[in-house]
Structures are given as structure tokens and as C-alpha cells.
Amino acid sequence: MAVLVIGVDGFGNINQLHGHVFGDELLKAVAMRIRSGVRAGNLVVRLGGDEFAVLAEIEEFGQAATIAKRLLHEMQQPFVVDSKEIDVTVSIGVAMEAAVDGQSSRLLARATAALTEAKELGRNRYAVFDLTMGSSPSEVELMVGDLRRALRAGEFFLLYQPKLDFSSGLVVGMEALLRWTHPEHGQVSPDHFIPLAEKTGMITDIGRWVLEEACRQMHEWHEDQMVDWHVSINASVFQINSTTFYADVVDTLKRNELDPEDLCIEITESGAMRNVELSLMTLRKLSTDGVRISMDDFGVGHSSLSHLARFPVRELKVDRSFVSRVTESVESEAIVRAIIGLAKALGLEVVAEGVESRDQQALLAEMGCDMIQGFLISQPIPSSDVPVLIAKLHERKRAQYES
After folding, report:
1. How do residues 240-261 score in pLDDT, each as one tens digit?
2. pTM, whole model, 2 decimals?
3. SS3 letters for the chain?
């Protein structure tokens, strides 16, 4: 489950300037935008004042961020209230649980804490609850201890989600997604523990484990004669900018008898821009060796296009917040078309994330998208289920060919 708490930025000032009647009508308009930005079946409520909440059942943690991005997008157009045009932004706090189990009050409290974080970061954005929000130094220290124990005790594991090529209809990549099963709290969202790992510097050790495990699994697939795809890992900017990252990648590939082309490193658009020159140096060396570099979540960051042209990126991943609305929103369709056009002009391949319907797939194919990833193909699965999935996709492709 995911809970999103949405607050209208500066609503008190709006009431003072335009009056409470105007403010009430604006809240109704905001409510309508929120309802249009979520799916049927999601619960939308007003908590009080200028705060709303959305309760959504999700299949994968990343879907909660997609909802938040979509809601921010819905607010971009000015509101017209009582013949007056007004620009309004919102801040959003997000919290998730693998199972609520009667802890709905905790989930709401966490989302509210994340909303406070979003407002403190400058408003007009969303923040996902992480384990440091609202915690005392001693509690944070305990959480760090849990993370260290998790790495030693083997509580982390990887799931894999395929990337499907439009032209061949076959799998060309497997994205490795990090998960943590806590012995007391169950499955913990990466959005909860990754920020803590980054703040404490543990992300380097955890990232090194992800790299090793993904490459070990890729070697195993090679041993089983499944060699038609690369494996992708998500790399934090803190990893990329560490002095050991390049050597870690080279050593891990060699130890697992893999070619550089067998590995894809996914970087986020905003993360890569934090220290452009240092990131560039490391990524260029890896790209020269043959490692595939992918820019994730493209379209939601604030990077310079001139910087993008300098990065040795081979593929762009269109953020799922646009893909999820590509068949419903003229604006989302225009954004996706523009991203695909930009990628083609730069000689890059395009992956659309979060594809869930045949209509989305058909439209993306018409736009010239190269690859798709999402629940339409498969949800993230354990490595043991990959051979069955591959056989199923091959059989589907064969049936289409014969028909």
C-alpha cells in the first residue's frame, strides 16, 4: 500500500489575499485535479484544511513515486477560480508498506513526515519517507546497525525485470532491483533505506554487493546458455564518484568472466549532474571499456541538455510518470514524443518504463521507442523464475510469427 499526503503550498496566503470563499473553491478545484490524476479505485480524501490524501494499492514500490509525479504534473496548469487565474503548487509526502497489517496510522504519520520534508526542501515537489525522518539520533544509529547486519546476514536480495526489444520481441536486458526483507518489519521499500545508506556512506558497500550479485547471476545465466541480454544495475551518484567504483566494476566483470557489454549501469538524471566532471570521468572510462550507460527517469530532472550531450549515454529511460499517462494525456504524449525525438537526434536508444497496457505499447511503437519495460511484460521476479519467463516470451513470439 502507498499513502500520499498532499498539501497546497502557501494556502494561508491565498486565503488572506483572496478570501475564504475563494480558498474553498480553489480547494474543490485542487480536489478535482487530484481525482483526475489517480486511477479509479484509489481512495482520495480531504484530511482537513488544505491537506488531502491518496490511498493506493501498488504492485511495486516505484509506482508510488509515479503517482506523486503525475499529481505534480496535474497542478502545472493555472487554476481559474471566480474568473481569476492563479498558479498553485503542491507538496507531497509518500509512505509505503509491503503490508499494512493494521498499521494505517503509522503509514499516514510517515507520509505526513515526508510532506514536511518536501516543504522544507523548497515545495512543489514530493519526498518519500525514509528511515531518518522524525527519528532521534539513537534510533538512526539502530537503523544503521540494521543495515550493516542486513548486508552480513544476507537479508538483501535482487529481483529482475526484463526490457523487451520492439523489433525482435525478445528480452535484451534484465534490470536488477534491490530489495530488503527485515526480520521484524518485513519487506522494506528501497525508498526508505537507500537515503539512509547514502547519508551514512553505506551505499558504497551495498552497491558493491549489488554489482557482485548481479554479475554472479549473469555468469550463471551464461553457464545455462542464456546469453541474449545484459544485466542493469542502478548506481548512486555516491558510488560513481567514489575512487574505487571503476576498479570495482572492472574487477567484478573479470572475476565473473563477463564482457563489459554484459553490464549496463543506470544513473539518474539529477544524480549525474551533482558533480558533472567527476561523474563524466568515471563514466567515460567505463563506456570506453564497453559498459553500457543508461540515464534513468529522464524528463523529471533539471539537467542541462548541453551536459546530456557530454555524457557517454547509450540509452534514455523515459520516466514512468509520463508513460503511465501517454494514452490519456495530450501533454504526456507530447513529452514522450519530444524525449524520443531528442534521443534519436543524439543517436541514443529509448526505453519506456512502466508500460502496463497494449494501448501504451502500440503508441510507443508508433513513436519509434526501442524498448519497453513494465508490468505488461513482467513484474520484477526472482532469478529462479527468469527461465520460465523467457520460455513464455519466446513461445508468444513464435505464436505471433506463425499467425
Report:
1. 988 899 999 999 999 999 999 9
2. 0.78
3. CEEEEEEECCHHHHHHHHCHHHHHHHHHHHHHHHHHHCCCCCEEEEEECCEEEEEECCCCCHHHHHHHHHHHHHCCCCEEECCEEECCCEEEEEEECCCCCCCHHHHHHHHHHHHHHHHHCCCCCEEECCCCCCCCHHHHHHHHHHHHHHHHHCCEEEEEEEEEECCCCCEEEEEEEEEEEECCCEEECHHHHHHHHHHHCCHHHHHHHHHHHHHHHHHHHHHCCCCCCEEEEECCHHHHCCCCHHHHHHHHHHHCCCCHHHEEEEEEHHHHCCCHHHHHHHHHHHHHHCCEEEEEEECCCCCCHHHHHHCCCCEEEECHHHHCCCCCCHHHHHHHHHHHHHHHHCCCEEEECCCCCHHHHHHHHHHCCCEECCCCCCCCECHHHHHHHHHHHHHHHHHHHHC
